[in-house]
Write a structure and sequence with these properties.
Length: 127
């Protein structure tokens, strides 16, 4: 498949969780980042928006999807439990879910007009 074109609009994101990135963006297998998070840690909205889906999805486990505008969505998968309900307005940095106590990795995706985009190019550098 052709590489994702640079989006017409851009979005400023913040990291959704503490932890080390263990798998980068590499479609079709990986449409986002895997972040090895501390057990029980908070997962935060990468930007303000509206929770348009909260629930289980095969391959993603417990999932929260946040719509930021007409073009941008972020996806937070493999949560232990969500902290927001569907339809809720969410501010950037607000907790949207928690990771489990067992060894688990957050699955984080960014989508522009429904197509996966490499989150690494949209997230600030980590020190």
């Amino acid at each position: 498949s052709p590489p994702a074109r640079a989006p017409a609009t851009s979005i400023r994101l913040q990291w959704p969780a503490e932890g080390r990135v263990t798998a980068g963006y590499g479609p079709p297998a990986s449409k986002g980042l895997s972040i090895d998070t501390p057990p029980g840690s908070a997962v935060r909205a990468a930007a303000a928006g509206k929770a348009i889906h909260v629930g289980n999805l095969r391959g993603y486990g417990m999932l929260v999807i946040i719509k930021h505008d007409d073009n941008w969505l972020t996806v937070y998968g493999n949560l232990d439990k969500p902290s927001v309900s569907e339809g809720a307005q969410v501010s950037g940095g607000q907790e949207v879910g928690r990771m489990g106590q067992s060894d688990s990795e957050l699955h984080f995706e960014v989508r522009n007009n429904g197509k996966p985009v490499d989150p690494a190019g949209l997230l600030p550098a980590r020190g």
